[in-house]
Amino acid sequence: MGSGLDIAIVLAAGEGTRMKSSTSKVLHTIAGRSILGHVLEALAPLAPKDLRVVVGSQRESVEGHVREIAPHATTVFQAERNGTGHAVQLALEGIKPSGNLIVLAGDTPLLTSFTLKEFLDVHIASENDVSVLTAQLPDPTGYGRIVRDELGGIVRIVEQRDATDEEQEIDEINTGVYLFKAEALMKSIHQISNNNSQGELYLTDVIALIKAETNKAGAILSNDYTETLGINDRAQLAECAAIMRDRINDAHMRAGISIIDPTTTWIDATVKIEANATIYPGSWLQGTTSVAEDAVIGPRTTLHNVSVGAGALVLESHCTDSTIGEKSNVGPFSFLRPGSSLAAGAKVGAYVEVKNSSIGAGSKVPHLSYVGDATIGSGSNIGAATIFVNYDGVEKHRTVVGNEVRIGSDTMLVAPVTIGDGAYTAAGSVITEDVPAGSIAVARAKQRNILGWVLRKRAKTASADAARKAGASE
Ligand code: UD1
Ligand code: MG
């Protein structure tokens, strides 16, 4: 008997009716990955030579997803859901399997590689024809129960609906994860019948068949029942997501990352964080986000596919598909939209929105600005309330700002326009033409003061009184 895993069958054809969703149950996500994706991820280190996913309900979307995340897998179509036994029959059609074969459900995202590997080791060592992974649940209602004989060996699995009152008292349940010697499964899988309360072919019935035939059936109790929880409705989806969140946060904290409030910090399974980073409450790190050492994130910050450099600070902000350089500073209340890139030591401050723009080393956009489709050099300062006017109503255009530039407050930079190195713009300017290096552009009406106007035109007002007190006259 080989030591590895030869075949894996993942059952994912079910309707998922209780989700009340237009999306297939197994495509719902927790921690940034589909439920099915978590199952396949847990399975991956066991490296099955032949991976088969049984699909049915919402076939196209599930198949498409499998092609994307596990291109080496074969999908098997189960047109009618005639039960888990029927699904396995279809998965085995036309092949001559040998070696070790695992069957698991596509809706148990908390299973770990560690548990699956242990299960495989124990199964191989036992030389059993079938091993069932079991768990003891505080409330076993709804699950198949493990019926053992007086010697403690498994005799059969009985479904909730088919169980006697006495059997319903059993708190050891079938997790839906099984390991078989493939030949033993092949022999028994066509002997099952649909003579049960649901009129379905139950995979679980092969256990009693194998037990009677060879007596080589085992039930292995897993020590963490939360791993085997399945998702059937949205309440269970949230419950599993919270367990996954705690698991992920625990691992990060043990690796030297400070998470101030793990219950309000949600980090996708796909996110990478280096030691000595700190995450403040209410933060959500998603997708391919990575956070380097000594960075500080949050509170209340969302990072979606964002790379954060070492020692950077991102405070109360929302950032997507962007790069934040080391020791740069973002927030509070900044919005980095896709394609934003901040070089080392750059700053994007309060109420600033950045899109598809790069901000050079040490450059600052501290207050109340929109930076769209811009390239800003290093050491430049963009005055408060500056707007990069990138849209002419039809097309978007780029603005280029050089190094060591000082853009005056409330400047409109009407793209396409280029501001040369070391140039200035006067506050309140509307810049429509290129500004050569080292010059100042003043693009606003010249100020004129009309003396005594308030005293004449607003005679009996508080302003007129104040002006008179200050010595103004008509
Ligand atoms: C099944 C087990 C039960 C176990 C429980 C663990 C059987 C008869 N019962 O019950 O002992 O305690 O899982 O969660 O196997 N599926 C198909 N095609 C089908 C039917 C189901 O692919 O025709 C898939 C489902 O998508 C799901 C998995 O098989 O991923 C389990 O099916 P489900 O209907 O949820 O079985 P349970 O009633 O939960
Ligand atoms: Mg189920």
Domain module tally = 3
Helix/strand class: alpha/beta
Largest sheet: 14 strands, parallel
Total count of helical runs of at least 4 residues: 10
- Strand % is 25-35%
CATH third-level topology of the largest domain = Spore Coat Polysaccharide Biosynthesis Protein SpsA, Chain A
CA gyration radius, whole angstroms: 32 Å
Ligands, deduplicated: uridine-diphosphate-N-acetylglucosamine, magnesium ion
Specify the CATH homologous superfamily of the largest domain.
Spore Coat Polysaccharide Biosynthesis Protein SpsA, Chain A
Global morphology: elongated
| CATH architecture tag of the largest domain | Alpha-Beta Complex
Detailed description of the structure:
With 474 residues, this protein is an alpha/beta fold. The chain starts with 6 loop residues before the first strand and ends in a 5-residue tail after the last helix. Strands 13, 14, 16, 17, 19, 21, 23, 24, 26, 27, 29, 30, 33 and 36 form a 14-stranded parallel sheet that branches. A seven-stranded mixed sheet has the order 5-4-1-6-10-7-11, with helices on both faces. The longest helix is centred in the middle third of the chain and has 21 residues, at 234-254. The protein is built from ten helices and 39 strands. Helices cover 21% and strands 28% of the residues. The protein folds into three domains: 5-228, Spore Coat Polysaccharide Biosynthesis Protein SpsA, Chain A (Alpha-Beta Complex), CATH 3.90.550.10; 246-441, Hexapeptide repeat proteins (UDP N-Acetylglucosamine Acyltransferase, domain 1, 3 Solenoid), CATH 2.160.10; 448-474, no CATH class. The site of uridine-diphosphate-N-acetylglucosamine (UD1) has 27 residues, from β1, α3 and β10.
